[in-house]
Specification:
There is one protein chain. The protein is of the alpha+beta class. The protein has 2 domains: 3-60, no CATH class; 76-171, Arc Repressor Mutant, subunit A (Orthogonal Bundle). The chain has 5 helices and 7 strands, in the order βββααβααβαββ. The chain has helices at 46-60, 76-86, 96-103, 107-115, 143-156, and strands at 10-13, 18-24, 27-34, 94-95, 128-129, 159-161, 169-171. The strands form 3 sheets. A 3-stranded antiparallel sheet has the order 1-2-3, with helices on one face. A hairpin with a 7-residue loop joins strand 6 (159-161) and strand 7 (169-171). Helix 3 (96-103) crosses helix 4 (107-115).
């Protein structure tokens, strides 16, 4: 069934992209951001339907917490990074540097692991930002991928639009002038 649907068991339209959802047996194997011009595809199995339902709940309520079985993916280091990312609550952000320090690694290595995350939204890598701006997303520092990250951070209230015509984003500032980055 996967091959006739481009490898996905569902393609869910959202305000920021079409989400390609791939399952393997009883586990979610991948969520991929596809261009909005991609064709929607109704869920082809129970798990794909469950993933679509949970994503819709998140789109209505950014505080929603996902509960989906995930396929075992990535290296040991990537899984450690993804576990740290999964612990970041909705509406909160952490920097690559903060996570790197906790993992005794380098910010670039954390960024690379973020880019390899096969479960965006469920493992919310969009909540990891650079020290001075929102950083990159899915191995990209601009264009479509970064517009998805901006949309997700705005949806969660983690950042606010600045006055720039490009709609640049900065971390929401706390009352004491420090950025509201979770510790």
């Amino acid at each position: 069934m996967s091959s006739i649907h481009g490898g996905f068991e569902a393609r869910l339209p959202t305000p920021f992209a079409i989400l390609g959802i791939r399952t393997e047996g009883d586990a979610l194997a991948e969520i991929r951001f596809l261009p909005k011009a991609s064709k929607a595809l109704a869920p082809q199995n129970r798990l794909a339907a469950q993933a679509c339902a949970q994503i819709r709940r998140y789109l209505v309520n950014p505080e929603f917490r996902f509960d989906l079985p995930l396929a075992r993916r990535g290296t040991e280091f990537q899984r450690r990074v993804w576990a740290k990312i999964a612990a970041i609550g909705p509406g909160r952000i952490r920097s690559y540097g903060e996570l790197a320090q906790e993992l005794r690694s380098a910010p670039r290595a954390v960024g690379q692991a973020c880019g390899e995350n096969p479960f965006p939204l469920v493992v919310p890598c969009h909540r990891v930002v650079a020290a001075a701006d929102i950083g990159g997303f899915a191995h990209s520092d601009g264009g479509f991928q970064l517009s998805v990250k901006r949309w997700l951070l705005l949806h969660e209230g983690a950042v606010e639009p600045e006055g720039s015509p490009r709609g640049s984003l900065a971390p929401r500032m706390g009352g004491n002038g420090t950025s509201d980055i979770a510790s």
